[in-house]
Amino acid sequence: MKNGFYSIHIHMLDGVRGRDSGVFVLRNGVLIGGGPYFWSVGSYTVGQGDMEGRPAHQSAHAVC
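Predicted structure:
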């Protein structure tokens, strides 16, 4: 995976109806990003055909 600016689309898989979209900057193992309802800062690793992100801090805003 190259360093860059990525668009993401999230769909909840735990039975909760919800989705979100946002952007992430990936640079040398560090990820920073978010959207209108969340943000995350952390790290990532790239393996053989997959990527694993590890948010160190996340924040989500409740929508009423």
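Summary: Residues 37 and 61 are 5 Å apart (CA to CA).
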